[in-house]
Design brief:
98 residues; five-stranded mixed β-sheet; 1 helix
Length: 98
């Protein structure tokens, strides 16, 4: 059973960055899209706390475990708009193998 949870805005990949302004990931808005391969609702706070810590440490590009769950990176999408950049991290949550 596969579930998708996302916190996305419309993504128009064709939009161009603002002229003369270089992309700065530290100033970009960040969001996480979660693809769930297991049920983790009862441990929601623990999992989201782990994701938030990794996001703040800029370490969502590495696989890691939170309790019995394995969190794997799937994709990193950068959307540059005149109003600001958005970085979306797509991750997958599954039960860690024993």
């Amino acid at each position: 059973k596969q579930k998708d949870a996302s916190v996305t805005t419309d993504q128009k990949a064709e939009e161009k960055p603002q002229q003369g302004k270089a992309f700065n990931e530290t100033e970009a808005k960040k969001q996480i899209q979660i693809n769930s391969l297991c049920e983790w609702k009862k441990d929601r706070r623990m999992v989201l706390d782990g994701l938030y810590k990794r996001l703040k440490q800029n370490r969502l590009h590495q696989q890691f475990c939170v309790g019995p769950y394995c969190i794997s990176p799937v994709a990193k999408i950068v959307l540059q708009k005149p109003s600001g950049s958005i970085v979306t991290f797509r991750i997958q949550i599954s039960k860690a193998s024993k």
